[in-house]
Amino acid sequence: MKIWVDADACPVVIKDILFRAAERTGLQLTLVANQPVRIPRLHCIKFIQAASGFDAADNEIVKRVIPGDLVITSDIPLAAKVIEKGGHALNPRGELYSEDNIKARLSVRDFMDTLRASGIDTGGPPALNQGDRKAFANNLDKLLTQYAGNR
User: Cα–Cα distances in Å, from 11 out to 7, 49, 91?
Assistant: First the structure.
């Protein structure tokens, strides 16, 4: 299992949790973004700078992900592509996307895009809170434990 991070919009606190997990487990953690991202100097943590452009970082992740890999993203279309390729997708709030819930999440996303396009202010997501961070850390740990048990 490799861990891929859609790093352009990933909160710093979530990156810190991921850095600690990579250091603890030795799993390969790769952050992908359009802009340079600071990473710790550890052999298991890498950074890939994607070309500039819409969805370039997402496309880079999809190109490289293989079945069983984990992708950290809040981008629902990216999560859908990862699941389609047999990977796992976890958002920074700790929600694990799956075949069972991704179609509904895509529908809600598309509906909200339609509302925004018609001029309705739907607001943005609330700030990441302590419960979100805990849910993320717990679900990440659960996935890493499952992986370790299957090796």
Answer: 8, 17, 11
> Over the stretch 31-46, which tens digit does the pLDDT of each residue have?
999 999 999 999 999 9
DSSP three-state, residue 16: helix
3-state secondary structure of 111: helix
What is this structure's pTM?
Answer: 0.87
- Tell me, what's the pLDDT at 109? 66
Residue 76's alpha-carbon distances to 36, 56, 95, 126, 146, in angstroms, are 23, 15, 11, 17, 23
